[in-house]
Design goal:
Elements: E1 2-5, E2 11-17, E3 22-28, H1 36-51, H2 56-73, H3 82-92, H4 105-115
Antiparallel strand pairs: 1-2, 2-3
Length: 116
């Protein structure tokens, strides 16, 4: 993973996957100061990555890149805001639908007969 800086002050996070020789480049907007719009942008970025079904560890890695750039620039860290921390926690929890079915009378009889 590499951080790339261009002449306009934009920061890019580049990740190269050696297994299948693919590259992913993500633009990270620079933070002039810590403000609510920056936190909102990070929240939208997390939602975008989650919608693309990226692994929670990958999302955390990208957020770490944002934190790193913010520390280099001496800006406030939007990733330590309660909302962002909760979003990161939510990406780690499974959100699978409950596939359990209620125990019907025939299934209950089968269970009771099995226990006899």
């Amino acid at each position: 993973m590499h951080l790339l800086f261009d002449k306009f002050g934009l920061v890019f996070l580049e990740h190269f996957n050696e297994k299948n020789s693919t590259s992913l480049t993500i633009m990270i907007m620079p933070a002039a100061t810590f403000d609510l719009s920056r936190t909102f942008s990070v929240a939208l970025f997390i939602a975008h990555l989650s919608a693309k079904r990226l692994a929670p560890a990958t999302i955390s890695t990208y957020i770490s890149g944002i934190t790193y750039v913010d520390k280099l620039k001496g800006c406030g860290d939007p990733t330590k805001v309660f909302l962002i921390l909760k979003l990161l926690t939510a990406t780690k929890s499974p959100s699978r639908p409950d596939v359990r079915l209620p125990i019907t009378l025939p299934v209950l009889r089968l269970l009771v007969d099995t226990l006899k």
